[in-house]
């Protein structure tokens, strides 16, 4: 029997610094409230006659997701919504595993079996499983056994899904449907079409170097914010967040990032 260690992430921070700091989203609100109730008026103090205020506004216009080959940017406006979902969301194809794809293929076999058809061998022959799908963690022997059992009836559904969901889809071009008796041809075509609409997410394949902000080794998100006109990249201000741990985004993990030649930076004040 092998010993094992279970590691679980904790959302509870043992540090008390954040609670003691009692940060607020808008510190100027306190100052404005003090001014409203006259707390700035003291016996030995004077009230200002005139005040000159200069305000610089830097709207966020882009959210930049890191990419090994080239950066991927998404336009951002105040009406877009919170930045956190844009940063932490990942393409569904990046989250799918061989197990998920094989399970999707079995659901088509179940639909066909419900109308009295067994096309397992036909589908396995036409859409063979990639060899890499049968490899799992060497220490996960139970997982390897489960994958091999699943692979006995499963097939790779991606090519079939892409074909069925194409605008020029023609059921007559699917070789495995030619083995279906004419009396069940309509039911089989309907089963395949309904299955494809339900399992459309499994048609996507994540390309190499797909844009993502997640860094699995560090368990952090890495991204940047573009400030200024997106039509003038060299004039943009870049704020980098190389160590965002997830959840509510505050200003602490954001810092002036590397910029192209000629880019401006916000001065720390």
UniProtKB/TrEMBL annotation:
Domain of life: Bacteria
Protein name per the record: Uncharacterized protein
Ranges for region Disordered: 243-269
């Amino acid at each position: 029997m092998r010993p094992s260690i279970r590691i679980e992430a904790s959302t509870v921070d043992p540090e008390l610094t954040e609670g003691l700091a009692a940060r607020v989203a808008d510190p100027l609100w306190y100052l404005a409230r003090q001014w409203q109730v006259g707390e700035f008026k003291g016996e030995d103090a004077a009230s200002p006659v005139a005040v000159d205020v200069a305000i610089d506004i830097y709207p966020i216009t882009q959210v930049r997701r890191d990419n090994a080959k080239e950066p991927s940017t998404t336009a951002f406006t105040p009406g877009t919504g919170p930045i956190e979902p844009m940063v932490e969301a990942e393409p569904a194809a990046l989250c799918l595993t061989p197990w998920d794809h094989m399970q999707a293929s079995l659901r088509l076999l179940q639909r066909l079996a419900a109308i009295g058809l067994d096309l397992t061998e036909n589908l396995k022959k036409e859409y063979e499983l990639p060899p890499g799908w049968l490899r799992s963690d060497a220490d996960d022997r139970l997982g390897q056994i489960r994958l091999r059992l699943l692979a006995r009836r499963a097939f790779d559904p991606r090519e079939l899904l892409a074909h069925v969901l194409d605008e020029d889809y023609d059921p007559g071009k699917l070789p495995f449907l030619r083995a279906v008796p004419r009396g069940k041809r309509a039911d089989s075509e309907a089963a395949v079409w309904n299955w494809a609409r339900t399992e459309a997410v499994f048609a996507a394949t994540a390309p190499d170097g797909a844009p993502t902000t997640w860094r699995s080794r560090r368990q952090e998100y890495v991204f940047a914010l573009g400030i200024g006109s997106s039509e003038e990249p060299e004039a943009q201000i870049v704020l980098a967040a190389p160590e965002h741990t997830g959840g509510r985004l505050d200003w602490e993990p954001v810092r002036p990032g590397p910029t192209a030649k000629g880019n401006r930076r916000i001065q720390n004040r």
